[in-house]
Specification:
With 401 residues, the protein is an alpha/beta fold. It is 40% helix and 21% strand.
């Protein structure tokens, strides 16, 4: 039977998954993709084939006990009845934080899982949910090899100075440093940029992953040299519900003067800030755009988002020593022409000349002239996880030298 790989990306109340085969050229080929959402409340499972045709659309009985394990078992049962000539051979996981130890995908064993659990304090709102499906698979399907792929790994090759805060050395040694995130997305962009623009693949590029989570990454010949997210996924740009960069003194103020507990402050900065907090309306850019003319908060949130992208773009251009191109990706970056246009108009100082028609059509190239170029490239983090799985398992099969 043909081996297939299952890729899992778990959130607090959702489980995204995709199934990949391996093409003759070694590249992952998507077979199925799906989403189980509303876990712990009103669950909904939808599965599609590679063309987007709905193959399953199920709403299990709403119950608090229907969580990640129930969803994963339902997905496994569906796959077993629709496997045809395929057999599930491995499982890959998106894990937000790999710390300083992991700069590449790794096969999961007891020691790796223990190390990843120690990183929970560095990503308390993401890491526990990423690790839960790993434990479920180990318990329910112990013979299936599992591979962890990390959002931080792509940035581990940055210069040391780009990873440090101006803190006492003993604090840095305890892990308080800049890690960067969205690395799977940026690694994918770097891997395909040569096919879109060979010149940019060898040049200085700022990749903009703009979505409910948002960041920028400076790429020099495809390598990360700086990024806007730092110690946590809270840093950098304003996001859907996250504040982005914030003076640490403001956190002390929230605790001392406003009387918030650390947990309350954390929830506010992660879940009630960003586009949602500023607008008082929504964290969805589509809704904000629809109400921008009549809702002052919506317009302010959009303006702040674009302004901060422009400021952070300038800092990354300085880190690169110039710029040859911008790549937009992520939900907003790929689908919101208005945000792309506003960012590029603000970057006219760097030589970008917006092509209005191309931008409205979604690109891929959305600038004109001979100066720096901008492209729209859809990201594919799950494909990067599948590639990482294949590389790790291939290496494990190599005979010892």
């Amino acid at each position: 039977m043909v081996p297939a790989a299952l890729v899992l990306n778990a959130g607090s109340s959702s489980l995204k998954f995709q199934v990949f085969l391996r093409g003759e050229d070694g590249a992952p080929q998507r077979l199925y993709q799906g989403l189980a959402e509303g876990l712990g409340g009103a669950p909904h499972l939808c599965i599609r084939d590679r063309a987007g045709t709905v193959l399953a659309d199920e709403r299990p009985d709403a119950q608090a006990s229907y969580g990640h394990e129930a969803a994963l078992l339902q997905v496994a049962e569906w796959l077993s009845t629709h496997r045809g000539e395929h057999r599930l051979a491995a499982v890959g996981h998106r894990v937000v934080h790999g710390g300083m130890a992991y700069a590449a995908p790794v096969r999961i064993d007891d020691a790796v899982l223990e190390e990843l659990e120690r990183l929970v304090p560095l990503a308390p709102l993401h890491q526990p949910h990423n690790l839960e499906p790993i434990r479920i698979v180990r318990r329910r399907f112990p013979d299936l090899p599992q591979v962890a792929c990390f959002d931080t790994a792509f940035h581990r090759g940055q210069p040391e100075v780009a990873q440090l805060f101006a803190l006492p050395a003993e604090v840095s040694r305890r892990g308080v440093r800049r890690y960067g995130f969205h690395g799977l997305s940026y690694a994918f962009i770097a891997s395909v940029l040569g096919a879109v623009s060979p010149a940019l693949a060898e040049g200085r590029v700022v990749a903009a992953h703009l979505g409910n989570g948002a960041s920028l990454c400076a790429l020099d010949r495809g390598r990360s040299i700086a990024t806007t997210m730092g110690f946590s996924a809270l840093d950098g740009l304003p996001m859907g519900t996250r504040c982005g960069s914030l003076d640490a003194g403001a956190v002390f103020y929230l605790l001392r003067e406003m009387g918030l507990t650390p947990d309350q402050a954390e929830r506010m900065l992660y879940t009630r800030s960003g586009l949602l907090g500023v607008s008082g309306l929504s964290n969805d850019m589509r809704i904000l755009r629809a109400h921008a003319a009549t809702h002052p908060g919506a317009r302010t949130a959009i303006d702040l988002f674009v302004y901060r992208i422009g400021r952070e773009l300038g800092s990354l251009v300085a880190a690169l020593g110039g710029i040859d191109g911008i790549v937009f990706t992520g939900g907003i970056g790929e689908h919101d022409a208005a945000t792309r246009a506003e960012v590029l108009r603000g970057a006219a100082w760097a030589g970008f000349r917006l092509d209005e028609a191309a931008n409205a059509a979604g690109g891929p190239r959305i600038t004109r002239g001979e100066g720096p170029q901008a492209f729209v490239i859809p990201t594919d983090e799950e494909a990067m996880i599948a590639r990482g799985m294949h590389a790790v398992l291939d290496e494990a099969r190599q005979p010892a030298q």
